[in-house]
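Input (structure):
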């Protein structure tokens, strides 16, 4: 089912509390009373696809971007060799901890979690409801990172690195095994544990890459170069806020930050900071 059809299906629910569409991103947000909400498996094949932004107080030119990519790839190769040895026990920890797993593994800092939605972890994740053979799928996706999209953006006298990645094939394998069911029932609660694992897996991957990039900047340009993670935004996310079940697809707006898109590029607005970003090669 296409997302626009899913939106229509979700909004036909009698428990709708709020709904909104975002024409710039072809996205939507639907808030449903938890007692009347249903689990929609087709939504979760791209669970927690999102983007992490790292601000670097240095303007990148093309040659410097190439240099940074070399150092990033060197660090990435070493990390992937180490990750391959973590096994299914390590993956179970990752499912539970999300971004916390990455921080504990020295990929970034506590400050990175503070600017990540939900601090990058859903505490309701339950690895016991994930098929054991899918742990191997998760491990392969953690090793390959073939779905990473990386952009180098500039804004006046500084640069922004955008790392776009989610759960990859892991979510595409696991989500179709879920059943359309009432969220408030036993099967719905089981599905919610799976949803937590899918989201945490994506947050862990994004934070791992953020930490690698932060280290690569220091490798390439020296420890004096200042940087910070601006924000980690989830495009496809679903969660229970205590009263309602919320579906959000390509709806990149949070309490403290918003990401807008038009024909001129992207604009990232964080608190009072407004920075238009365009690809560095333009």
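Output (sequence):
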């Amino acid at each position: 089912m296409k997302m626009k059809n899913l939106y229509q299906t979700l909004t036909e629910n009698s428990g709708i509390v709020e709904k909104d569409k975002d024409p710039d991103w072809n996205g939507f947000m639907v808030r449903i009373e938890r007692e009347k909400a249903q689990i929609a498996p087709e939504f979760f094949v791209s669970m927690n696809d999102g983007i992490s932004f790292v601000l670097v107080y240095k303007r990148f030119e093309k040659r410097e971007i190439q240099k940074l990519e070399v150092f990033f790839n060197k660090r990435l190769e070493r990390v992937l060799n180490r990750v391959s040895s973590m096994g299914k026990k390590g993956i179970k920890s990752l499912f539970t901890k999300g971004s916390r797993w990455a921080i504990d593994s020295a990929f970034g800092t506590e400050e990175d979690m503070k600017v990540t939605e939900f601090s990058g972890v859903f505490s309701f994740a339950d690895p016991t409801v994930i098929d054991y053979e899918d742990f191997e799928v998760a491990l392969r996706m953690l090793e390959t990172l073939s779905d990473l999209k990386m952009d180098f953006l500039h804004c006046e006298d500084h640069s922004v690195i955008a790392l776009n990645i989610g759960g990859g094939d892991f979510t595409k394998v696991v989500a179709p095994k879920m059943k359309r069911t009432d969220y408030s029932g036993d099967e719905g609660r089981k599905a919610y544990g799976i949803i937590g694992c899918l989201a945490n897996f994506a947050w862990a991957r994004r934070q791992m890459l953020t930490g690698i990039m932060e280290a690569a900047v220091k490798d390439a340009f020296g420890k004096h170069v200042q940087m910070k993670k601006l924000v980690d935004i989830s495009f496809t996310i679903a969660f229970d806020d205590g009263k309602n079940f919320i579906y959000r697809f390509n709806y990149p707006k949070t309490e403290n930050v918003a990401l807008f898109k038009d024909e001129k590029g992207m604009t990232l607005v964080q608190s009072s900071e407004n920075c238009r970003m365009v690809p560095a090669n333009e």
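Notes: The first helix runs from residue 3 to 11. The chain has a mean pLDDT of 89.
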